[in-house]
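Example record

Each entry pairs one chain with its bound ligand, uridine-diphosphate-N-acetylglucosamine.
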Amino acid sequence: MEKFIVTGEVQLKGTIRTDGAKNAALPIMAASLLCRGQSIIHDVPCLRDISIMQDILTLLGAKITREKNTLVIDTTHIDKPEVPEHLMREMRASVFLMGPLLGRMRKVHLSYPGGCAIGPRPIDLHIKALEKMGAKVRECFGYIEMEAKALHGGDIYLDFPSVGATENTIMAAVLAAGTTIIRNAAREPEIYDLQSFLNKMGAKISGAGTDTIQIDGVRELRASEHTIIPDRIQAGTYLLAGAITAGDVVVKNILPDFLFSVINKLEEIGASIETGTDYIRVKAEKLRGVDIKTLPYPGFPTDLQAPMLSFLTIAQGTSVITETIFENRFKHVDELARMGAKVKVEGRTAVIRGVPKLTGAVVAAPDLRAGAALVLAALAAQGVSEVESVYHIDRGYDRIEEKLRTIGAQIVRINS
Ligand code: UD1
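Structure tokens for the complex follow.
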């Protein structure tokens, strides 16, 4: 088990580059199953979730090579429509394989997915959409079997703009007969990136980034080359690392539009923000609390709720955070209390009373984003902190400690 040792109260200063987005790379890797040939994908981050997806694709029959951050995925021979249970359990994003496998093999067999323990994460919307396109679904003993001899287009309304359900439906629809419309679709930038990748392969998709997406089915797709968009959640985390240490940090390789809601909140808090075409700079000194509600994009991202909460523990006054997307997303709060934070959680709301200082403590990362939040708190805290269970953090941040050291953080990884 590895942990981070962090010496806090060092102002972070300098420039940090964002990697490609994990949440765009995962569905795009799954989408490579929809053609026969070699897809070349650049800027794929080196993360545990990406390795799990690589393992799954390899088991299905794909041949994958990695040269730095470029993946070459050869999907000429895919012979299994089955995802092994132990890999499904490791990562919720394995559910993205449903749409592509159904599209390519016309059947799929998998168990319910795992992932972060951030509350119940049903897949009813995915299943309803695929059923509407002609898939016959059987669920028994924790397994889902789907078959669709002839997949057809459909007019689909999502009860909630689910990112995964939107992506799965797009991937199933590209090779279906006729036109599919997805209404109340999620609008996240990662969905636009999936559309770009699939359209390069010969798909006919329009509307990604809005709440109505149209997919005209085609007979086949060809392999193509694509560069993954930058990771807005990673970029937001590094901006908050700059802000929580009252530093001056430039985050490069990020479109400011992706983080509009976050930039807006940082300004409301009193931070000074400068943006360019591909960077955001944050400078922060005395900061005040704000109220935040997480919402589907372009609202404030649930994935940055935990890092933002850490920051608000030392902002002046009282802040209120309402989490509307996932339950159990306040698991970092008990750990932050060990560092002196004053936070009260009731249901989906956290009330944060800012304290002048946090103090170093031994804490454990309960999940990916909550883990990143604890690293941020440790960077600001007086004295030394230990952050345990860093494997959660490694699922979403490629060597976070090395990146943070380049802007002055005192953080090392050790084996405990
Ligand atoms: C994706 C992101 C995750 C992010 C989340 C919300 C990836 C790999 N993960 O997750 O980092 O936190 O979007 O921005 O891209 N829901 C249902 N039924 C369904 C599907 C979802 O009720 O069939 C609910 C979920 O329980 C949750 C909400 O919808 O409350 C949002 O989930 P969704 O947008 O699907 O998130 P993911 O795609 O799992």
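Residues 2-19+230-415 form a domain with the UDP-n-acetylglucosamine1-carboxyvinyl-transferase; Chain fold (CATH 3.65.10.10).
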